[in-house]
Write a structure and sequence with these properties.
This protein folds into 3 domains: 2-45 and 97-169 and 260-336, FAD/NAD(P)-binding domain, CATH 3.50.50; 70-91 and 173-258, D-Amino Acid Oxidase, Chain A, domain 2, CATH 3.30.9.10; 341-393. Helix content is 34%, strand content 28%. It is built from 10 helices and 20 strands. The chain has helices at residues 15-26, 52-55, 96-109, 159-162, 232-243, 289-309, 314-343, 347-358, 367-377, 380-393, and strands spanning 2-5, 8-11, 31-34, 49-51, 66-70, 72-76, 82-85, 91-94, 113-115, 118-126, 129-137, 140-145, 148-151, 174-183, 191-195, 205-210, 215-223, 248-258, 267-268, 271-273. A hairpin with a 4-residue loop joins strand 16 and strand 17. The chain binds flavin-adenine dinucleotide. Flavin-adenine dinucleotide is lined by residues 11-17, 34-37, 40, 45-50, 119-120, 152-154, 177, 179, 219, 253, 255, 257, 275-277, 281, 286-290, 292.
């Protein structure tokens, strides 16, 4: 069997994998990144919303992967009212196919090797020690030996399980999603819309993310434990029938989003998980692109340092957890606690929240203002959730 030697093998070429590979290679490690599809970023299973602030540290902003620039969010309450929220910073709806490829190019430019159509099928062990990755490339079985494996293989990650890590998600910690990319009507090209309500999307929300004026991603995510009697597609089809009966559906995606606070264990001797594989997703919004990039930069740097130090023990690699916790991991726990409240929030509270937003003039709108208005009416929780929702969606 064909075998080659690397310091680090990264499994998955999404944002988590490409950023890990790039930052590890920048520090001089010999890195191989395996992507099972013929191109990173396809099929697109994402609404493609990010904030400028979130991605700018990682990539020069380039119109070629921006489908729409967003400057407001519109919240729709269960009783049919709407309120625009401004001044939350610039957001983008991406062309992820191009964006993900560009991130891979940056990794390659930093010295990482990348193979597409390379499907990782298992780990190599010497005794208990992980020593490499088995993969199939162009129909051929191959082995890449290495000192560290990075599992960046997304929500359905198998790498963690191969290493004996428990990656199981409870039903209420995974959102089941359906999304249609549609055209055939006009959309507000600078606004993302969010619809809430028990009858609209229990324990989640429906989104409209424009991709220009004529195309949009319209999708739904509902909590797994609320999808038994009626699934997300049924809710979304009802919504489409009511609001967009005339559009044509160009593309449909189904996918899961982890909404756990994280994983108890995602680091062991010679292995680390990152991105969706490590459940590093905002539990309220389901946004994971920027979270993956932030975690991946840390993971890549720590992995490269561990190669230089000649120490790939769990003890050494736990620096990744420490830095992730300080940067975002602890916030994830707070978000998770708020998600529980958000999921069980009654429709009347959503109505009240939207009502509060309506009362703030556009040029005075800020999350601080919303918070102070809410404080007067005392719906503290709602203001916190609104703040967390919008800020984190745009992170
Ligand atoms: C419907 C939906 C809407 C979403 N909307 C948003 C949004 O608007 N904003 C946002 O921030 N996040 C959103 N997300 C979440 C976001 O897509 C993920 O958090 C993000 O893609 C995580 O990046 P990743 O690199 O960890 O995983 P992925 O992007 O899933 O990349 C994993 C990669 O690993 C590859 N792979 C898997 N197994 C193997 C293997 N065995 N061998 C080799 N390669 C392998 C896959 O082909 C894939 O390319 C959404 C998710 C869904 C499902």
């Amino acid at each position: 069997m064909n075998s080659s030697q690397y310091d680090i093998v990264v499994i998955g070429g999404g944002p988590a994998g490409s950023i890990t590979a790039r930052y590890a290679a920048e520090k001089g490690a010999k890195v191989l990144m395996l992507e099972r599809d013929r191109e990173a970023g396809i099929p697109v299973r994402c609404a493609e919303g990010v904030s400028q602030n979130g991605i700018a540290p990682f990539i020069d902003i380039d119109p070629k992967w921006i489908a729409a620039t967003i400057d407001s969010a519109c919240l729709h309450s269960p009783d049919g009212e709407e309120a625009y929220m401004y001044n939350n910073g610039v957001g983008y709806v991406l062309e992820r196919r191009i964006f993900d490829t560009e991130l891979c190019n940056l990794a390659i430019q930093s010295g990482a090797e990348m193979l597409t159509k390379a499907d990782a099928v298992g780990l190599e062990f010497e005794g208990e020690k992980i020593t490499g990755v088995r993969y199939i490339h162009n129909g051929e079985n191959k082995i890449a030996t290495c000192s560290i494996v990075i599992g960046a293989d997304g929500v359905e990650s198998r790498v963690g399980r191969w290493a004996g890590i428990n990656t199981t998600l409870a039903l209420n910690d995974i959102d089941t999603c359906v999304q249609y990319t549609v055209s055939g009507t006009d959309f507000e090209a600078d606004t993302c819309h969010f619809y809430f309500g028990r009858d609209v999307s229990p324990g989640g929300y429906i989104w409209i993310f424009p991709k220009g004026e004529k195309t949009a991603n319209i999708g739904i995510g509902i909590s797994g434990d609320m999808a038994a009697d009626k699934g997300p597609k049924e809710y979304l089809d009802e919504f489409m029938e009511k609001h967009f009966p005339e559009v044509s559906i160009n593309y449909t995606v189904y996918g899961g989003v982890p909404t756990a606070w994280g994983l108890n264990e995602y680091i062991k001797d010679n292995i680390m998980l990152v991105g969706d594989a490590a459940r590093q997703v905002n539990p309220i919004t389901g946004g994971g692109i920027v979270q993956a990039m932030i975690a991946a930069r840390i993971a890549g740097q720590v992995a490269a340092d561990s190669i230089a130090a000649g120490d790939q023990s769990k003890k050494y690699l736990l620096r990744y957890k420490k830095e992730w916790d300080a940067k975002l991991g602890k916030t994830q726990k707070t978000m998770y606690a708020m998600k529980e409240k958000f999921m069980n929030m009654k429709d009347e509270k959503f109505n009240k929240l939207v009502n509060l937003c309506q009362g703030i003039p556009k040029d005075e709108f800020s999350l601080k203002k919303l918070f102070s208005v809410a404080m007067k009416g005392n719906p503290l929780l709602m203001a916190e959730i609104a703040k967390a929702f919008v800020v984190s969606k745009l992170k």
